[in-house]
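Q: Predict the bound structure with adenosine-5'-triphosphate.
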Amino acid sequence: MSALLEVRHVSRSFRTTLAVDDASFEVQPGELLGLIGPNGAGKSTLFNLVAGVIAPSSGQILFDGKPIQGWKSHDIARVGVARTFQIPKPYRQLSVIENVMLSAFLREKSIAGARRLAEATLADVGLDAYGGSPASSLTVGLLKRLEVARALAMRPKLVLFDEIMAGLTPTEVGAMTKFVAGLPARGITVIWVEHVLYAIMKTATRMVVVNRGKKIAEGTPTELARHPEVVKAYLGEEMDLA
Amino acid sequence: MSAETIPSLSPRRMAWFPTRGRISWFEIALLLIACALVVSGMASSLQDVLLLSFLFGGLALAWNIAGGYAGLISFGHSAFFGVGAYASTILSTRYGITPWIGIWIGALIAAMFGAVLALICARLRGPFFILSTLAFAEVVRIGALNWSSLTGGAEGLSIMPAPSLIGMVFASKAAYAALMLFYLVAVFAITKGLEASRFGYYLFAIRDNEDAAGAAGVNPLLGRTAALALSAALTGIGGSLFAQYFLYLDPTYVISPELSFQFALLPAVGGLGTAIGPVLGSFLITPLSELLRSYLGSSAVGLHLVIYSFGLIVVMLYFPAGLAGALDKLTRRGRPR
Ligand SMILES: Nc1ncnc2c1ncn2[C@@H]1O[C@H](COP(=O)(O)OP(=O)(O)OP(=O)(O)O)[C@@H](O)[C@H]1O
Ligand SMILES: [Mg+2]
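A: Predicted complex:
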């Protein structure tokens, strides 16, 4: 009833592939939902559906109780949904801070105000030393952080993180995990797709597991670690909770 | 720590060299030189070149709003140029409405044409967009040719050459030069304002990555439509001024692929997506093209285009950021970009 996001029987096919197959799940405000599944399971497609990059073939997506399926991505962004791109999509001809300002404009209409919000957000993700650098000069790891900064500068209610840890060193993974874990306390609900399982299982309040477009399991990390189908079919024998 | 590479972070002191979103001493100096040239009373053939350089500088800046800032590379801008030229000329010759007012009406109609083009091409990108703009201009040209009750068809329209202030017809070339310089400065100021505005940033975002812009709440179609409408309106004003100077227009004269190509060439040579670039481009290419035109005469129609294209390829190869990029590199030696 009071769910922030409700995905109801959503399907999406690309020609012959059914990328998302009758997926249903809910996210409550303040949750940190881990979304995991093998390559090609349909995780990014689910994000694209929620963020309005593509429309579902069928099903409903409710945000704050309002149906948003089929809306344009900029309209969905404006009601409070931010997302990162698995493959970073920076504005290459702009500086790092300007990249973030463009997100900040959603909340701060003046250039000076947007710049302040962008500076604060860059400091938040540890990119403050790069504000003046052209975005095209960043390494992949830094571009991932820029994605996070751009999403957070929108002051979203819900943020969709798509593999923000890829390319990070173990130390950075630790710092980023802690950072993401702190977001719900700041009023930001998170759905997090990540292949670095120990990080996500340590922080997520709840997990959804997908495979071949279908949701195959749902529950707390501890429940899933014992879930035979998940362990066998997806996680393999070696899963251990750090 | 980033103040050095992001000039707009320190808005108090004026920059020496062209900087996004701010006026620099370099630009002030250019303006002073331009003013001095206007009042210097030089030979009339040189004044021709000077005022055309001003006019095409403004037109290049207008094109650059769509092509450079919003990434909407158009080879159809002569359509807007023609619409502006026809609107003010028809209003003044048929209905006795002074061009001082007709220009604005022309700008408005051109803006509508620009918006229509943006909406028609909403889903087209890259070469498909470019080809559509070319086709669009051709449709407008053929329309102007056939709607002869309004446009005079292939015979064209003439403006009474009797000098009059209200008719915006002047006896002295210096007066035209001043008018064209005013146009150039106005479009330049609008461009600088755009660079420092939220709308300008939206255009950069749409140009650089439309998906990311959408995810940040920017409406790409709205941005593209507004950019093209603004660019078209300013181009239309240039068209009206052109008509007031040449006192004659016909469809193939004011709406042609050559002209459209020229509008795109100047910013490309000068530096796309910069304010100073199109101005520098015009001051290099316009005199050159006038020279070529008088040198080659009518013996080799289209040969100047071949030479242009060659020049454009050379610039793209050796100065991909145009003259403005070269200037930037020269004046920032030692500092990281
Ligand atoms: N735009 C598209 N056109 C065609 N097929 C697509 C498109 N987007 C995704 N797919 C297909 O849909 C399926 C799901 O892809 P998706 O990117 O959502 O997987 P994923 O779970 O994010 O995988 P990964 O962990 O590798 O990022 C794949 O088979 C993919 O090839
Ligand atoms: Mg993915």
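A: Residues 21-256 of chain B form one domain.
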